[in-house]
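Side project, low priority. Logging it here so it doesn't get lost.
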Amino acid sequence: MILINPKTNLIIDSIKRLGSSTSQYRQVLPGLTYLSPPPQKKISPQELTEEKLIQFFLENNSEKSISQGLLELVTGIGPQTSKELVIRAGINPDTGIEFLGQYEYSKLWQQITWLNNLIINNDYQPTLVKNKENPIAFAPFFLEQFTGLNQISFPTMSELVEFFIGKKEESNLFKQKSLALEKVIDRELERCQKKLVLQLNKIAEGKQGEKYKIWGELLTANLYQLKQSNKAIVPNFYSENQELIEIPMDENLTPNENAQNYFKKYNKTKIGVEKAKEQSKFTQEEITYLETIKSSLERAESLSELQEIRWELEEAGYIKSKPEKNKSRDKNSTPTPSPHSFYINGFKVLVGKNNKQNDYLTLKIAKNNDLWLHVKDIPGSHVVIKNPENKDIPEKVLKTAAMLAAYFSKGRFSSQVPVDYTLKKNVRKPKGAKPGMVIYDNQKTLFVTCEEKYIEEIIQGSDL
């Protein structure tokens, strides 16, 4: 879109500016004279004849495909329409122009005529193509190149385009917000992993501390024969062979003072190791927690789920909240997360897809006699089989619930995923534990390989 002064034909501004590095033919910059785009030397569908079509293809009998040839010849059509015309003519769109014969020209011309009549008569059938739930293409007619995918009709092209663009904008916004959250989580994971390395190195230094203790004891045991020096050579009574060992000393200190210094170093190292062990435990727990959030982010399918993850990151202190947008929100006003529900052979199965949903499902919705499932030692969803009447749960229901647990986890694409299951009354949340973190006992383990097609059919038929 370019804004031009009609009196001077000078460019006022444009949505996209083009400098000489982008286009040698014309520059689109404020203050320059407007120049029309270069002529494409194409023919409109209404002016095209079968003879012109054949002549063009014969004169351009190169390595180009038929669909590429049509794209260069006919104005007003794009790659999708060009490919569609060739497919409707019963020809492979990747076939080279040199392989066309009179029969193929005739079939191709029939389809161009069909397109012409559709335009002249306004005989449109606005059609949207969806791959699962994602809109991937649209046209004013049914697209045979996407046979097998779901194609939905719309009353008007305007409604179709508005819906398609709206979904694209929503998809782009989803990707933008998801990438922003992923960046935060990756940053925090990197911070924790660096901290854990330092803590583990500190623990490894504990071996050096044991050496200080031994040196101090050996010096103490031999004080009667040691003199002030820069080293002491004494028998190592901790060794079976009692070999002599050389211990560095500060020659400005007495042997006893050197021994006491080594004991102080040992105690300092010991305290440091104990603190590092305690800190490394918390750091590892934080890494596990962040990995559960990242796993939830990978499974998120809507902006509302991204918002729940953002709120969790805000409450954990990883992201600063936005007061101007969240003035009315506090912990008590945060919307209650709703786990997803499925019905399998009469049993209701609930799945939490992030830590907030997992907590709400396990601690608020699930009752003591409900069956609780979770993949073993892998970040993933809490799954609950509701069983208010305390019935025997059929094997098929149990296996399907286990596959749902595997599907909504990092083990989704693995085989023989271990899934623990136990009664909900055996599941507890430790005091101060982070969202989604629970402990459980009296569990059994079921190994499942997720049948993705089967699970996706269940999801399609659920209230997702």
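Brief comment: The radius of gyration is 36 Å.
Revisit when time allows.
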